[in-house]
Fold each of these.
Amino acid sequence: MSFPFKWRYTDNERPLCVCADCRLPYPQGNDCAVPDDIWEKINPSESEGGGILCANCIMRRLDHLGISGVPATLW
């Protein structure tokens, strides 16, 4: 199954202050933090630690990769 959004964005094309996938404005949605090693697997940016994903899009990317049981903080 193909992923419905572009997986990585260069710094020049990376959307700012919105979720990279669904474009939900930040911080309109809830903040969600996952461990750094997991983030780098789903990071929408070419920059280490960069990019913004809303909680729903984080889950969508994890599901696409078949990753489950990830400890996350939602606030």
Note: DSSP finds two helices and two strands in the chain.
Amino acid sequence: NINLAKYIDTTDIITDIQWSHQIPSIPISSPAGIISTSVLAPSRIHTLTYTVTSRCVSEQKRKVYLEMLKDGKMRPLKDTIAMCYLYSEAVNINQLFGLEAGGSWTYHAVKSDGTPQNIDDYVTESTSPTHAGAVVMNGKGIYKDNDIPYYDGVNTKIVKFTYKTDSGCLNEESYSIVIVLTDEL
């Protein structure tokens, strides 16, 4: 089962979420957004719609795309992304990778000379008995930390996340993504 609601940002202000699949006969529980992968066609992208009611909006519709991959496969990642530090206080790294599976994470800021710098104070790894857990980065905190130097003296800070899968999932592969935090987007 996949809990789609955990991939929706700002769930603390949402008062209701209703889910539907493009094929009405495929059930999704609401508000949790639980869908069983056994009812989804393999090797296909599924379009799921959720309707949100919150303190700010009423019945606003949005879409989530869920891609079913063959066992042991993962889509190629973008190797580098840029984001405005002002809006990066709670970046769900799992969403950037497009996965949540057992494995281990390493992460660090990258100095201009290539050496890593610890950012443990700005990354939270949550765990749960029902899912592998989320990895959340406070990019704004990293950017404003004066002990983490700008990359090459310009107004950017570079962070690298690496995910290594467990032996039972995705064949013990490692995947990395570089995040450029900047004020110039």
Note: The CA atoms of residues 122 and 142 lie 7 Å apart.
Amino acid sequence: MTYQYVKAVDDETQEVLAIGRFQSGLPEIYKDGEWKPEGYMYSWQMDGFLENITEAEALKLIEEQKSPQLQVA
């Protein structure tokens, strides 16, 4: 299957808010460790909130979300 991968980024903090993909026009979002259907991604796409990314970049972002964050005391 060929997917179009996208991400939504907060303009101020540059934090990745969502990682998604489209396959044959059907939107999915990576949430809670799995890909789930998400219809609201159409709105984000139409409003210009999504940036196209490569599959490799999407996988890297997913791995970064899984890894524990260092906390500053």
Note: The first strand starts at residue 4 and ends at 9.
